[in-house]
Every structure is written in C-alpha cells, then in structure tokens.
Amino acid sequence: MQGACLLLLLGLRLQLSLSLVPVEEEDPAFWNRQAAQALDVAKKLQPIQTAAKNVILFLGDGMGVSTVTAARILKGQMDGKLGPETPLAMDQFPYVALSKTYNVDRDVPDSAGTTTAYLCGVKTRMKVIGVSAAARYNQCNTTRGNEVTSVLNRAKKAGKSVGVVTTTRVQHASPAGAYAHTVNRNWYSDAQMSAGAKKEGCQDIATQMVYNMDIDVILGGGRRYMFPERTPDPEYPRNGRQNGVRKDKRNLVQEWQDKHQGAQYVWNRTALLQAANDSSVTHLMGLFEPGDMTYDIYRDHTNDPSLEEMTEAAVRVLSRNPRGFFLFVEGGRIDHGHHENIAYRALTETVMFDNAIAKASQLTSEADTLTLVTADHSHVFTFGGYPLRGTSIFGLADGKANDGKSYTSLLYGNGPGFRLYWGLRPDVDEIESMGPNYKQQATVPLWSETHAGEDVAVFARGPWAHLMHGVQEQTFVAHVMAFAACVEPYTTDCHLQPPTIPMDTAHQAACPSSLALLVGILLQLLVPALH
Ligand SMILES: [Zn+2]
C-alpha cells in the first residue's frame, strides 16, 4: 500500500474516532460468548506428534511484543476496523513461548549472535555468525574449529529442500545464520574484509552462501556483493554507486548457476513469478536490489516482489520435494524502521511480514508443517499514553504532558528522534505524527536507536508446536525445529511417525479415512492446482 493511501485511510479512521466503543462490547454477554468460544477451541487443542515434513521459520527482525501489538492495531485499522481486537495471522497460532534473546557477552543482543542461537541452537557473542562463543569477533584465525551448523544445513543433509527469503540483502546477519560461519557479520563480500582476514583464509559471506551448502531457493536483496567491482547493476545501470563491489572479480551468480542444473537467476518480479511456476526450475536465486530491498511503502510494485510474493514463490518451488523442506523467511526491515525511529516504516513492514505468514498458512497444512514466528530481539519502542480506541496508531496520546504539549502514543527510549528546540521538547500535532517520515520522539539522542533486551514471543503451529511453551533460551527454537523434523542431532533417537497426510503436496489438508483419501486423489486428478 502506498504511504499516502494509508495515511488517508488512517485519517478517515481518525475522524470517526472519538472514543469509539462498539455497542455490543457494552454487553457482558458479548465477552462471555467470545471467551466461551476461545475456551472451546482451547479445550479441543490436540498436540500433533508426528514428524514435521516441512518447517518454516518466520523471523521478524526486531519484532518485539510492543511492535506486534502496534502492528495488530495498524493492520486492523488498514482493514477498516478499530484495531486492537483484530487478530494478526501470527495471533492465530495456537502455542506461544517467550524466548530469552541475550548474547553470551551482551544482555541486549544483535542479529548475528541471535541468528546463531535460533538457527544453529548455540548461543554466541555479538557480531559473529555460525561460530560458537569460543571464536572472537574479527579474529579470522578463531573461526576454524568453532563452526556450528544451522538447522537449514542439517535439513538439507536429511534430503529436504531448503530456502532463504528476506527483505534485506541475503548476506545480512539473520539469513547468513542459515549458511555462513564468520567472525565478522559485515564481511558481505571480499571488499568489506581486511587484507589480513583474507590472507588468513577467511571467506566473505556471499562466497559462503554459494559454496558452503546447496540452498535451493535464495530470495532477497544483495546483488552488489555477487558481482565484480564496476559491474553495472541491471536495474540502475547509470548509477555507479549500485555497481558490483567484488575485488576478486568473481561473478558468484554465474558460479552458482554453473553448480546446479536447472538453476535460474532472476532480478525482477515478473521473472520471479514465471520461474516459480516453471517446474524445470530446481534452484532459484532472486536478488531484487543491489543492497537491502526497499521498504514496502516505497517498493516499485511492478519491478520488485513483496515478501508475501517471495514467500509464495519459495513454498511453491520447495514443496516439489516429496521429502519436504525447510524455509527461513525474514521480515528484515522492521528492525531498520525502528533504528531510524520511524514507527511508520517498522509497523508497515510488520504488517507485510504478517501477510507473508498468512499466505504460507494458506499454502501449507498444519498437519505436516511446523511454522514458527519469532523475533531475534526487541527494540526500545513503546506504546502508551491511554490513546482513545480507534485513534490512529500513529496518533496522539490522550491529554497533554507536564510541559503542556501533546505527545504520541508511540515513543522510543533512544535514537535519532530526540529533539530539543531552544532547550525544550517540540510539540507535535496529529497531521505531523501520522506522516510516513515522522520520527517519534526519543529520550536519549543516538544516531541509531538500539535494540532492547526483553524477551520476544515465539508463536507456533503444526507438529510439535506444543513444545513451544514457557520461558526458553532462544536456542530452543533451533532444537524444536530439528527434533520435529527428525534432523541432526535428533535423527538416531527419532521415532516419530510420518505425518498423517496421504498426499505429498504441501498444501493439502490431512484426510484420515481411506474414503477421504480416495476423494483426495480424485480431486487431485480433477483439480491440478487448488491454489
Ligand atoms: Zn538492528
């Protein structure tokens, strides 16, 4: 959705919003009925204890619980509702746990240490990826011998197809946890590495993405790290700053294509959608920007796919493997919006992330697909001030502050939104606060807002989702996925029955009886594409 359009929508909502309380909510019977229905659903919950054929991990980078709540209200309001009552796709998952996100050396973590925890199952230091805490930041010679392996890698070894989808560059910290071992998260290509690190034999993240393992689907941004320096970018051929950057003159996209028969590289939306529907495509790499993909509100909708479209393309290609798949999907720019103190960007990205979750839930079955939704860490982003129900999520808190000025209900603990005019906090009005570039006020001045250290949620659906309970170390996420899918280190003692799905396509629901099986097969013959 375009920014102006959303603003208009929220503006309309605002006009209607003088303390809206739906009349049915004044009646206790409304709440009792609603709770009774929820109780009924809860009582019928049955743990699914068969093996997960497929695993999808959705990672909202920086998507703390306050972000989830605010995005819920935004999505509801975009849909013409008041907001807080309207569930997100992730809200509909039956199980939730809390995840402790700290790195071994920091109470408040970064995305590199945390990706190692939730993808490899081992906690480590800040700024390093796919290596244990015995390795040291930026010391190349501490890499070897300290590598830890991702669940994605182990799923590949077990014969599953694997994919990585992100709105950042595919060499960024979170996706790199799926395939890389590096003591410096910024070694995107050899151009970012020191001469010493290269001499000692450390490899950049882009090279590792191509050579460490066989990833079937790679979608996101990050073209510039794949091509020799001065190679013009296909989308921005006249902009030298978007050129390839590799000093070693290698064309990693070509090398990747040479490795796999049936490998296709695309760099725009049209080619992606074609490739996803082409059954001769066995491997798909789509890089849609030289660096990170643009925020969805600024995306060129004809040239670049949405996260939802990338997720659907990945599921379609990966689900051709009868042994199943592991897919990592990152809403990577939620984090960036927060670092800028621009909640509009962070929250619209979160809504787009939730749309991708909804799409994957439609395309897969709870009976054979374990889906987890979590965050690597939170942000110092708060939502308070008793705003009236129905007020735009980007609007003002109710009443004035002690300085006689208005304030927004969304605020930050620190970051570039800190402002003083003549030593005083600036006033803010509703029109200003709802602008797509508005920086919410922050208490402490910093060029970039920081992450926060409180726990994040893990939402779970599918086989063994019920293991997601209580307060867990973030490493638990990787271990639940590995156990449910019967991959290392849970292969030898894995006695899990296969899923009770009669057909091997990922998107068809379980049919327990033989009659249902027959009907299913007939349907499959008659209706080749149900979606
Ligand atoms: Zn961050």
UniProtKB/TrEMBL annotation:
PANTHER family noted in UniProt: ALKALINE PHOSPHATASE, INTESTINAL-TYPE ALKALINE PHOSPHATASE
Main subcellular location = membrane
Q: What is its EC number?
A: 3.1.3.1
What protein am I looking at? alkaline phosphatase
Keyword presence, Membrane: yes
Q: What domain of life? A: Eukaryota
One family from Pfam that matches here is: Alk_phosphatase
> To which species is this protein native?
Rangifer tarandus platyrhynchus (Svalbard reindeer)
Cellular localisation: Cell membrane
Segment forming the signal sequence = 1-19
Membrane topology label? Lipid-anchor; GPI-anchor
InterPro entries associated with the record: Alkaline_phosphatase, Alkaline_phosphatase_core_sf
Q: Which UniProt keywords apply?
A: Glycoprotein, GPI-anchor, Lipoprotein, Membrane, Signal
Give the main EC class.
hydrolase
Family label:
Belongs to the alkaline phosphatase family.
